[in-house]
Write a structure and sequence with these properties.
This protein is mainly alpha-helical. The protein is 64% helix and 4% strand.
Length: 457
């Protein structure tokens, strides 16, 4: 048994190490999309996500996962869940450097990396105009409270969505990606678009990324880390046969998720390339959307079905991302709401359509997956995410704490926040903006006009 414990400790430790590349990738991805005057501000948000979410998750988030599986009221009394609540309190032995426990700390760290990921997803959507302090407040709530509450409900074998409705979301299409994306949408409604994002006629402009190669490299690093992300979604149990289980304690294998991830990337790239007519950003983002679309059923989908569903997910992300920008006039700088949010919840629904009848939650009696159960999951998780993001950002907005002033946004957040220009050889007059009709023009006059319109109300 001791050997099993040491193997499990090493297993989760390795997944944590490789999941760090998610945040290397997110930093490159977002910094590349940013204009040069905002690169350092964008990068530092990803670093500070780790600084603020880690202690919050240690003191509150992990407890919420074990203690709030039955709803918004913590478990109490003599129930087994109440015992878990006590076990993971920060001052208990199992939450310290206890050499008698080989699992808790590394398993906690795997979940912590998921928490950082939710913050990074929101970070990309809000770049170039959100205050760093406001972002840190929002990411603490998202990373240490909101998503982990959804995980307690639907991403554990004893959550109420699983026990009563057979909810199944193996690699967190909805629980991580969907929640983070819809939380970000709630924030964007209050944050508003970047100055100059829309013309006087309602047409959507595009800001030229300062380094698209860096963005694409960041996405490729994220893709590499997805293998560790999926591996950390397994519940590796000592003394079990076969010993590899999903988060609901149903048997699965590393081979199954290897097929799913690799084939989903291939299908997503192909669909993203076709649907965006070869746009580099949406080609790679299509790969990400493809994997997210199949994550709920990644432990059960056959490879051929995986390819088709990944193509569907990528096409959906390209379509809804474009529609959201042009019709809803939501300025999502990296398409995070489309790729992670809407496609994440699409993935939850696809599980109900294509794997209905699959038994899930073996520890809870193998409740069957149904389209109704997956719908109930969406009905619970989507408003949890969106309303949390909207309400918290609305409160920050009322205190004038959410968005930087217009003059700071025009000058660039790097100068305002760090007192220096990290690209001193680059003049703001060289900045290019893409009009709604596709023409590229100098950004200076466009942004000045947009800022004057904003100031005049």
């Amino acid at each position: 048994m001791m050997g099993d414990d040491i193997f499990i400790e090493n297993y989760y430790f390795v997944t944590v190490v490789f999941m760090w590349f998610l945040h290397v990738g997110f930093m490159c991805y977002e910094a590349g999309v940013s204009r040069r005057k905002n690169v350092m501000s964008t990068a530092i948000k990803n670093i500070m996500t780790i600084a603020v979410v880690t202690p919050a998750f240690y003191y509150a988030g992990w407890w919420a996962y074990f203690c709030m599986a039955e709803g918004l009221i913590p478990s109490s009394g003599d129930s087994w869940h109440a015992g878990e609540c006590t076990m993971v309190l920060p001052w208990e032995d199992v939450m310290g450097p206890n050499i008698g426990d080989h699992v808790m700390a590394v398993f906690w760290a795997a979940f912590l990396l998921f928490s950082w990921t939710t913050g990074s997803i929101m970070s990309g959507a809000t770049i170039e105009r959100i205050r760093v302090s406001a972002y840190l407040v929002l990411t603490v709530f998202l990373g240490a409270f909101v998503w982990i509450l959804g995980a307690a409900w639907g991403w554990s074998w004893h959550g109420w969505l699983v026990v009563h409705f057979g909810f199944h979301d193996f690699a967190a299409s909805g629980v991580v990606h969907g929640i983070a994306g819809l939380f970000a949408l709630g924030v964007l409604f209050n944050l508003g678009p970047r100055i100059g994002a829309f013309d006087d006629n309602g047409g959507a402009r595009a800001f030229k990324p300062h380094n698209l190669h860096m963005t694409l490299m960041g996405l490729m690093i994220i893709f590499t880390a997805f293998y560790a992300f999926y591996a950390a979604c397994l519940a590796v149990l000592p003394g079990e046969a076969p010993g590899w289980n999903n988060i609901y304690y149903n048997p699965t294998t590393l081979g199954a998720i290897t097929y799913t991830i690799t084939i989903a990337f291939a299908g997503g790239f192909m669909s993203g390339y076709i649907c965006s007519k070869g746009d580099p950003f949406w080609t790679l983002s299509g790969g990400l959307a493809g994997v997210i679309a199949v994550s709920s059923g990644a432990d059960v989908y056959a490879p051929s079905l995986t390819y088709l569903l990944a193509m569907l997910g990528a096409a959906f992300a390209v379509w809804i991302g474009t529609w959201q920008q042009e019709k809803m006039r939501v300025d999502d700088a990296v398409g995070a709401v489309a790729v992670h949010g809407w496609t994440g919840f699409l993935g939850v629904m696809l599980m109900g359509i294509f794997a209905s009848g699959y038994p899930t939650g073996s520890g809870s009696g193998n409740v069957e997956v149904t389209i109704l159960g997956q719908l109930v999951g969406v009905a619970a998780l989507l408003p949890l995410a969106f309303l949390s993001g909207y309400i918290i950002s609305w409160l920050l907005k009322q205190g004038n704490l959410l968005r930087v002033p217009p003059e700071v946004e025009l000058e660039g957040l790097d100068v305002a926040e760090f007192g220096g220009d990290f690209y001193p050889d680059f003049g703001s007059s060289e900045e290019i903006i893409v009009e709604a009709d596709g023409n590229e023009v100098p950004a200076g006059p466009v942004l000045a006009h947009a800022a004057n319109q904003l100031i005049r109300g």
